[in-house]
TrEMBL record:
InterPro entries: Polyketide_cyclase/dehydratase (IPR019587), START-like_dom_sf (IPR023393). This is SRPBCC family protein. It comes from Urechidicola vernalis. It comes from the Bacteria. CDD domains: PYR_PYL_RCAR_like. Coiled coil: none annotated.
């Protein structure tokens, strides 16, 4: 099992960051995703994310704890050379105007695929999400 974790303090209130992330929609507003479509609400909601090349990533919200500001989702299908992807997102208040966002995942890299390349890809994606979130939501 391969694990990736990116934790960053951003200039966004924890409340605003959590509201944006936990809605499980509109991820294209703060990530490299070109567009997304969400169906359903709460745990069990489904999201299809389309990359700029129109590749589709299908995700399912599997955990949502508003009190702890923790969200979990899985990738059910997509163009990536890995399986069993589970991601956890956690938001923690640092101050009135900043929060810490931790985006982590675990997955199994397909045989013959360099693990380091998948770690680098996901670290870049999570960093882009956090930068986009900081730019989208003013503190």
């Amino acid at each position: 099992m391969t694990a990736v974790n990116v934790t960053k303090t951003i200039k966004v209130t924890a409340k605003d960051a959590w509201e944006t992330i936990s809605s499980f929609e509109g991820i294209e507003k703060f990530s490299p995703v070109a567009r997304s479509v969400k169906t359903g609400e709460g745990v069990g909601a489904l999201r299809s994310c389309f990359m700029p090349d129109d590749a589709e990533i299908k995700e399912e919200l599997t955990g949502l704890n508003n009190e702890k500001m923790h969200l979990q989702y899985i990738i059910t299908s997509g163009p990536f050379p890995f399986t069993d992807y589970v991601s956890d997102v956690l938001v923690k208040e640092v101050s009135e105007t900043t929060c810490e966002v931790s985006w982590s995942s675990q997955f199994i890299v397909n045989e013959g695929v360099p693990e380091a390349a998948m770690v680098e890809l996901l670290e870049g994606f999570y960093n882009a999400i956090m930068q986009g979130l900081e730019e989208l939501v003013p503190a």
